[in-house]
Design a protein that fits this description.
56 residues; 41% helix; 27% strand
């Protein structure tokens, strides 16, 4: 499960958020309680954006 922070909290806790992301936990950023962004590791981003090679 991912952690959730408001943008204001994220500003004050950026080092802790980056550490969470480095160990594999995605972080959701919210504005007025609504999700606006996700922070994830580079490895996770690459896994999601690079095409998978397979038999097709």
């Amino acid at each position: 499960m991912h952690k959730q922070f408001s943008i204001v909290e994220a500003k004050n806790k950026l080092p802790a958020i980056i550490h969470s992301v480095e160990v594999g936990s995605a972080v959701e950023l919210t504005r007025r309680g609504k999700p606006v962004d996700m922070v994830m590791s580079t490895a996770e981003y690459e896994r999601l954006t690079h095409p998978k090679e397979g038999f097709l």
